[in-house]
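Why do we care about 3D structure at all? Because function follows from shape, and shape follows, mostly, from sequence. That is the central idea of this module. The next example makes it concrete: a single protein chain, its amino acid sequence, and then its structure expressed as tokens.
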Amino acid sequence: MHKSKVILLALVAFLQMSCVSTYEKILRSSDVDVKYKAAHKYFNDGKFKKAADLFDHLNLLVQGLPQEDTVAFYHGLSNFKYGDYSTAETILAKFIEVYPRSPFFVEAQYLRIKCLYDDTYRYELDQTPTRKAMSIISEFMYSNPQSEYYPVCKDMMADLMERLERKSFESAKLYYTMEDYKAARHALKNVLKDNADNQYRESVLYYTALASYKYAYNSIEEKQKERFLDFIDDYYNFISEYPESKYRKELDGLFGKVEHYAIKPESENKEEK
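And the structure:
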């Protein structure tokens, strides 16, 4: 390797070691002012992981001092900025409990909500974090109706509610996809029983009608009449709510196939057999 290149690499390595050594020296220092100023400088420079570690060390050093709540808040904020939402949420939750009179209190509440919101999953996955986030958001909106964060929280709630409602619908629809039409009809009805205002209501009622039709169609002849009557009930439920639906033509076609048969007296059906 060329001598000048070796020297350059050695210089770079030396500078990197010097930088690390400076940070480590500050980290190990017990000088509150030095560490406090350095933590804020790292934060302002966008070096959030280093800032978070320094604020963490400062927590013990500033107990009882005026900077106590500021350090605790920036400890959570640094982790939030770094993208460690789980750690940030834990820190901010403790901050909210310990410092209810802090000027950072409302912002800490909102940041905790952001942590919970950003740590939720797609609708296909476990929605336990979604329910937790919704509970905390609801409490915040109730307590802070005039907050600048209220509109954002309202949008978060709408998004999280959509996930829950889609999860509920898609889980029930899965039985239909698996061709277990009896279970599908039962599960879909439960979706609206649990939440009549589900935003997928039209699709839920549509698949409920399809499931009852296919369940009847695939039944033995002796059971078909009773089960086609269930379909007719589901059909009328659907068209009464969504007379202009894009699904109307398809369901009208199915209804036309079974209406006459399903409502005939049983004796007449026996004569035809």
